[in-house]
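Final report, Chapter 2: Outcomes

The project's central promise was a pipeline that accepts a single protein chain and returns its three-dimensional structure in a standardized token representation, suitable for archiving and comparison. That pipeline is now operational. To close this chapter, we reproduce one record exactly as it appears in the project archive, with the input sequence first and the structure output second.
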Amino acid sequence: MGTKEYLQMMREIKDCTFATLDGEGRPATRIIDVMRVEEDGLYFLTARGKDFYSQLMEQQFVSVTGLTKNWEMLTLRGRVKRVSQELLTRIFETNPSMNGVYPGDSRNILEVFCLYEGQGEYFNLSETPVYRETFFLGHPAEHKKGYEITDACISCGICAGLCPQQCIDAGEPYAIRQENCLHCGLCVENCPAEAIRRR
């Protein structure tokens, strides 16, 4: 699948966890509705009186996570910007439940934000082995996750034998199938040659 499909899955989940940092640098999370998805990003709302609004304006960054009923997790971390209020009417038209929460002109306290650039991950826990894929929105710098086996590998096979997802293939050096890796670090902790490192 591609970025567009993953963003649409987040829209279908709708109620996702949005994370920022509070004024003391500690994590702050809340459930926010994904209101709209377009080619250029993921759209959501918040009121100007909320801490979330202040944090978005100051940090211009958010992390969003959702889980489908089929145990498919989607995460998207990236840059946000406040966008034109012209979208507010369209968002209320496609999300009619908002009319009961902010009836009439009270909706004008809301601001529309767009997550327009970031790196995401699709992680399917229902498959064996698990499956993960990275996707990108806009043109962010890539941040690799997980582990890799270096040329210091002595091909002893200990890591492959211990891997809970059996995603390490024999070779010189052995190789981790990144799309099936849990990122648990068990291989790193048990490698006698210290040949495994973070990517």
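Archive annotation: The chain has two domains: 3-137, 147-198.
This record, like all others produced under the grant, will remain available to the consortium after the project formally closes.
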